[in-house]
């Protein structure tokens, strides 16, 4: 039930913290004899926030992922995703180029990248036209340290986390430089078994369904990457990168006890749904880059060609048994493979003009084909393949994009940037074993996506910036596959190949004071937003049926204000990060039709408003004069709020960490969600009388020990990172 787990978890986690804010950082001082040198750790530039991690007290002995969680405007509450203030997702760039791998592999890479390799972290809340991003995604650009010394260095990391299950992990990173050739690589492996506990309930005045039980999902990860960079001449270089990740989830088990009550007939029924799933996935991507500097002012041409293949082989046996009679009500075997192939090409040119003016333009082309041959076979009479639930869905998509931007600095105080992006999309979907024309569709549409920003520096302590951007969000490929993933006999998730792309319009006003305090005002409007909508009714067998259907439901607006500060007290001993976010969201829409079967349901109404807030406090305290002991104390509180499928309850968590550095060794002990309060509850009651509740425990309370050893020549220059031509595609696998 891997997709079920992911989907239900994301119902909460991907929406819960869409308005999170994180820390800011202030200035540090370093005393050299009688001179005090001041270094700004956190500063605002025209289109981004910059965090100088080389001068941060938390930068040693941890990972890039842990360091990003401590970065101003960035946060993570589930240890599996990163969020930027008010953003659905955080896309990772390295040295200005997007990482060439899928989202899960990016997180694994960050968790195995030594924090000592990082020099700066740039947070771009509203990306400009040259970036290939969707919806209101933001960008985290990691700047690696650069040294000129040849040699070899590396980092060995060992960790062990104890939550409900034990989760050991190990990784080895190597970096080599010899003359014009640079190479780095990483290999990692981890065991990540995970348990979720659910209490689900739905119904109306006539009936009630309740499901209680757990999902145990074993996971084994093996992966790594290799990056090669060769300097052909002083102005030309080529790069090659390869990334791979394999995941095995054998014998994943869902065990739910289900209780149904029919109040009209005063009857009850008790069943057990037991699902066993085997899933294997592999992701391989390759990118070739060529770059040439056309002058000495920074003008350059960059060319990229990329290939991506994602495969997931998944099958599950689902059995529902009557607990009173021990008779099997239903048993089926379902195979839901997914195969994604993508070819991408991209060209970018930057021309530095006179009077601090920069012209950028370029284009990209992506061709993607997905093949999903779903088989559904009944294992008890009447046995055999179910033609209605089996389908062979083939989807093809071509995207051509063109952009142009003009950036101008008008002295030290004022700068601005304007641009636009044009995307031409052609897609075609076919369910090969369905003759009905309804299952064969073709779409063509063009998106004009303007961008504008302006930044004004009143003085060295005060700056104000405004940004407007528009983007398109296309559905993920797995969301388009018209298959079902069953949680119980009558409770399942249903995907939708007919979903339209959503359009996002974002405005942001950002004020910064003394590189330590920030105020961000944000407004976003989403047209044709989509979500998993719970539709209920009584089916032909007289049973209450609940379908989570992924579909476009209507429009959404969000207004948010985020106030944050970061201050260092007691000569750098106490580093404090505080932020407060207030959000008002307006949903408009309703759903009453299954887009796959055209069945009519009682209307699910999403016309509602919600105001909520989030408080986040993070503290890092130096415990020794030698700067070798550190204590971390973190807390967040998220008030109740309305989301598309119901009202989300309070979420909060207290986390502690203790770090010890000893020459090239670092030891870190972490305690997460100490009071076990980071649990999800969602409740919804419709005017029709239908209700739906979800209570989910992900067992976030854990203790972990991490040991890091750095070896070799610490001054080896890092390999030049390159952007791939299929960046936006990888995030949809």
From TrEMBL:
Its main location: membrane. The keyword Transferase does not apply. InterPro entries: Beta-barrel_TonB_sf, OMP_b-brl_3, TonB-dep_rcpt-like. It is a multi-pass membrane protein. Residues 293-709 form the Outer membrane protein beta-barrel domain. Keywords: Cell outer membrane, Membrane, Receptor, Signal, Transmembrane, Transmembrane beta strand, Transport. Pfam families: OMP_b-brl_3. This is Outer membrane receptor proteins, mostly Fe transport. It comes from Halpernia humi.
């Amino acid at each position: 039930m891997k997709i079920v787990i992911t989907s239900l978890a994301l119902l909460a986690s991907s929406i819960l913290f869409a308005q999170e804010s994180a820390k800011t950082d202030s200035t540090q001082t370093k005393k050299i004899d009688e001179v005090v040198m001041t270094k700004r750790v956190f500063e605002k530039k025209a289109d981004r926030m910059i965090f100088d991690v080389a001068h941060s007290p938390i930068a040693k002995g941890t990972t890039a992922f842990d360091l990003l969680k401590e970065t101003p405007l960035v946060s993570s509450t589930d240890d599996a995703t990163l969020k930027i203030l008010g953003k659905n997702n955080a896309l990772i760039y390295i040295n200005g180029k997007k990482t060439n791998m899928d989202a899960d592999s990016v997180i694994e890479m960050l968790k195995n990248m030594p924090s000592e390799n990082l020099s700066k972290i740039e947070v771009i809340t509203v990306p400009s036209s040259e970036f290939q991003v969707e919806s209101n995604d933001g960008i985290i650009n990691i700047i690696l340290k650069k040294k000129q010394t040849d040699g070899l260095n590396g980092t060995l990391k060992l960790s062990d986390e104890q939550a409900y299950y034990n989760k050991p992990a190990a990784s080895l990173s190597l970096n080599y430089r010899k003359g014009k050739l640079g190479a780095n690589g990483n290999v990692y492996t981890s065991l990540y078994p995970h348990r979720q506990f659910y209490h689900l309930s739905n119904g109306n005045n006539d009936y009630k369904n309740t499901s209680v039980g757990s999902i145990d999902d074993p996971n084994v990860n093996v992966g790594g990457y290799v990056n090669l960079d060769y300097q052909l001449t002083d102005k030309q270089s080529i790069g090659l990168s390869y990334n791979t990740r394999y995941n095995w989830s054998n014998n994943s088990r869902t065990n739910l006890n289900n209780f149904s009550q029919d109040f009209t007939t005063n009857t009850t029924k008790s069943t057990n749904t037991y699902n066993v799933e085997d899933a294997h996935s592999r992701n391989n991507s390759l990118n070739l880059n060529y770059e040439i500097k056309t002058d000495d002012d920074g003008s350059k041409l960059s060319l990229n060609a990329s290939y991506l293949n994602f495969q997931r082989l998944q099958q599950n046996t689902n059995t529902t048994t009557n607990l009173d009679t021990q008779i099997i009500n239903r048993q089926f075997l379902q195979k839901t493979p997914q195969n994604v192939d993508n070819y991408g090409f991209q060209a970018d040119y930057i021309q530095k003009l006179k009077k601090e003016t920069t012209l950028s333009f370029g284009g990209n082309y992506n061709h993607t084909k997905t093949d999903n041959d779903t088989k559904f076979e009944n294992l008890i009479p009447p046995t055999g393949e179910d033609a209605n639930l089996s389908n062979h869905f083939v989807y093809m998509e071509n995207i051509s994009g063109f952009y142009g931007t003009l950036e101008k600095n008008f002295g030290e105080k004022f700068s601005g940037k304007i641009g636009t992006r044009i995307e031409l999309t052609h897609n075609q979907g076919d369910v090969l074993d369905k003759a009905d024309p309804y299952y064969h569709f073709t779409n063509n549409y063009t998106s004009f996506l303007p961008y504008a920003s302006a930044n004004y520096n009143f003085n060295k302590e005060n700056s104000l910036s405004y940004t407007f951007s528009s983007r398109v969000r296309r559905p993920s490929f797995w969301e388009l596959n018209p298959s079902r993933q069953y949680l119980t006999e009558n409770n399942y998730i249903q995907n939708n190949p007919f979903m339209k792309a959503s359009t996002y319009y974002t405005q942001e006003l950002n004020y910064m004071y003394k590189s330590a305090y920030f105020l961000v005002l944000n407004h976003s409007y989403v047209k044709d937003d989509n979500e998993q909508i719970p539709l209920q009714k009584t089916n032909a067998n007289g049973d209450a049926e609940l379908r989570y259907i992924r579909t476009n439901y209507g429009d959404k607006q969000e207004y948010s204000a985020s106030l944050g500060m970061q201050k260092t007290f007691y000569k750098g001993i106490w580093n404090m990060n505080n932020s407060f976010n207030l959000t008002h969201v307006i949903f408009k829409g309703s759903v009453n039709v299954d887009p796959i079967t055209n069945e009519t349901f009682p209307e699910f109404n999403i016309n509602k408003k919600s105001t909520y807030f989030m408080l986040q406090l993070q503290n890092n305290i130096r415990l020794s004069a030698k700067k070798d002991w550190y204590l971390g104390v973190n807390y967040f509180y998220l008030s109740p709020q309305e989301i598309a499928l119901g009202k989300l309850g309070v979420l909060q968590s207290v986390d502690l960490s203790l770090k010890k550095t000893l020459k090239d060794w670092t030891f870190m002990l972490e305690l997460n969600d100490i009071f076990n309060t980071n649990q999800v509850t969602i409740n919804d009651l419709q005017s029709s009388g239908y209700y739906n509740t979800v209570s989910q425990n992900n067992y976030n309370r854990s203790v972990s020990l991490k040991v890091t050893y750095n070896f070799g020549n610490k001054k080896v220059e890092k390999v030049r990172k390159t952007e791939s031509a299929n960046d936006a595609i990888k995030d949809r696998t």
